Amino acid sequence: FRSEETMLSNALSFYEQMDKRRTTRHFSKREVPRELIELAIRTASTAPSGAHLQPWTFVAISNKELKARIREEAEIEEARFYEDRIPEEWEEVLAPLGTDHVKEHITDAPWVIVLFRHSKREREGGLAPTYYSQESCGIAAGLFISAVHNMGLVTLTHTPSPMGFLRDILQRPKHEHAMLLLPVGYPAEGSRVPDLMRKGLDEVSDFRD
Questions:
Q1: Looking only at Cα atoms, what is the longest distance across the chain?
Q2: CA-to-CA distance for 44 and 141, rounded, in angstroms?
Q3: Which of 83, 139, 166, 205 is placed for a possible disulfide with 178 were both Cys, Cβ 3.0 to 4.6 Å?
Q4: 63 exposed, middle or buried (CB, 10 Å; 0-12, 13-18, 19+)?
C-alpha cells in the first residue's frame, strides 16, 4: 500500500493537472501522431462497463475528405437546431459562450474521434442486449478526455443534433449510436477558451460523515 502522504501528494498533483483542463473550439492543424490517439483509446477502454462488455467503438478519423463531409452534415443539422429547435432555456446558457452552427474544429483538428455506444452486442445466433451502455460509455469518454489532456493536447465534446448522420457516413451497424464527436489536436496559436469558474466543492458534494 502507498502511504497516506504519497496518496495525498498524487491526488493533489492529478487534481491540479486536471483543473488546468480547458475546452477550446480553436485547433491547430499541426499533425498528431496516430500512436497518441491509439493510447488515448486504450486508456478509455480501461473504463468499467456493465458485464465487462465494453459497449463502445471509437472511430478515429484523420482523412481530410471524410472530415469535410462530416462537417458539412454537422453544420446542416446544427443550423436547423439553432434556427428552429433550440429551447429558450438552452439558448440562454449558450449565449455567453458564443457558439453557433459553424464547426471549423471538425476540419481544423488533425483528428476527429466519434464515440459510438452499442445498444446491442453481436453473438452467435444474432444480437443480444448490452447493459448500462450509456453509463459505461460516459465513463470511457471521461477517461479519453483525461488521457488527451495528460498528453498536452486539447479536445471538445461536440454533440451535433441529431447525430444519426454519423452512423451513415461512417457505415457503422444499426445497433451503434453516435454519442460524442471529439476533435483532438493542439490548441491554435492565440486560441480562446471561455472564462469560466468551476463550482466549489461544497456546491458539487454532500458529505455525510
A1: 57
A2: 6
A3: 166
A4: exposed
Cα separation, 31 vs 190, whole angstroms: 18
What pLDDT was estimated at residue 195? 78
Q: For residue range 82-140, what is the model confidence (pLDDT) as tens digits?
A: 676 667 776 677 666 666 677 999 999 999 999 999 999 999 889 999 999 999 999 99
Predicted TM-score (pTM) of the model is 0.90
Q: Which amino acid, residue 16?
A: E
Render 107-127 in DSSP notation, one character per residue: HHSSEEEEEEEESEEEETTEE
Q: How far apart are CA 147 and CA 144, in angstroms?
A: 5
Backbone angles phi, psi at 158, to 5 degrees: -115, 130
The label of the residue with cell 472564462 reads 195
Query: What are the grid coordinates assigned to 177, written together?
Result: 449510436
